[in-house]
Amino acid sequence: MKPMYSRIAGTGRYLPERVLTNQDLEQMIDTTDEWIRSRTGIERRHIAADDQTTADLAELAARQALDAAGLEPEAIDFIVVGTTSPDTVFPNVGCLVQERLGIRGCPAFGIEAACSGFIYALSIADRFVATGGAQHALVIGAETLSRMVDYKDRATCVIFGDGAGAVVLEPSAEQGIISCHLRADGHYKDLLYHPYGVSKQRKPEDTEGPYIHMRGNEVFKVAVRSLESIVDETLAANDLEKGSIDWLIPHQANLRIIQLTAKRLGMPMDKVVLTLKDQGNTSAASVPMALDVAVRDGRVQRGDMVLLEAFGGGFTWGSALVRY
Ligand code: UT7
């Protein structure tokens, strides 16, 4: 019989040891701790060691999630990694994690949807597990965005950090992942982007550096509108009232964006999981890391109704309603 739902069996995270504080940034660029804290809510972020890659971070988060689920790697039969900062063009980070876990044969792939990468990945894995196409899916969001940030550009370098978060999904007859909602609008491609890749390479005459470029204030406005609309859509699709969500686990991009989304849901800020003060914006890693923090410190309990959401370059955005 088909299981109907997937549910989260375990969560994990990994943050690199090196920390870059606002005070460190004051020494590097024309900024202040006061500006960064008041405009973003960020105080420090973690940066991968020179020899650490996205797959290193992803593997450590995955091992924690497996431990929490009480599973050996052999149980995993589906791997998907949301990342915009893969180690190599190919093999994808999913394959690299698969090899490190010592397992073979199951599908393993990456999803490139910027900060929404984990929500996109979760949505796909959920459909496989809920329909019997996989038994135990490893879903990871992992980034080393520091590798594509210009540490002379104060508009971006104060924001981003590195990290990885992971969940293991298992089949369930009871509600787990209830609904996922994915959106994108490529017309906003010029507001937040990295100008080069494989097919489009930097030419000698190109003036833009090979870094993340962001028109922050314009991104901010679309992010708020899009997230308000996706949370409305998620509640409506499930016939839920605003008060039915126990925990909001938002993408950690900007405290002011998070506060506006919480307001839309009528949620007090003590029901919102915040990690951005200590982690900055870790793109696809931020939602699974925040979920893991709240599960491990006992805030998110089994049976709680949790709303995950994210917004990022593309633009892409999305939500997942979860009965933890
Ligand atoms: O995760 C993917 C999605 N990304 C986001 O959601 C990011 C959304 N955007 C934001 O979080 C905010 O727009 C920022 C935090 C990036 C910027 O905050 P803002 O309040 O929108 O500032 P702004 O870009 O309008 O800039 C205001 C002023 C400007 O100076 P003038 O023109 O008013 O003189 C900037 O040059 O702040 C200046 N500024 C800075 N000052 C000190 C910009 N960056 C800095 C800085 N330190 N790091």
Please characterize this protein's 3D structure.
The protein is of the alpha/beta class. The protein has nine helices and 13 strands. The protein has a five-stranded mixed β-sheet, sandwiched between helices. It has a four-stranded mixed β-sheet with strand order 8-13-12-11, sandwiched between helices. The site of oxa(dethia)-CoA has 20 residues, from α2, α6 and β12.
Entry summary:
With 324 residues, the protein is of the alpha/beta class. It contains 9 helices and 13 strands. Helix 6 (216-237) packs parallel to helix 7 (255-264).
User: SS-based structural class?
Assistant: alpha/beta
Number of helices: 9
Are there runs of 5+ residues with pLDDT below 50, and where? none
List each distinct ligand once: oxa(dethia)-CoA
User: Number of DSSP strands?
Assistant: 13
- The ordered H/E elements are EEHHEHEHEHEEEEEHEHHHEE
Describe the oligomeric state of these chains in a short phrase: single chain
Range of helix content: 25-40%
Q: Radius of gyration in whole Å, from Cα? A: 19 Å
Q: What is the spatial order of strands in the main beta sheet? A: 1-7-6-4-5
Shape type: globular
| Biggest sheet character | 5 strands, mixed
Termini separation: 23 Å
* Proportion of residues in extended strands: 15-25%
Residue-averaged pLDDT:
97
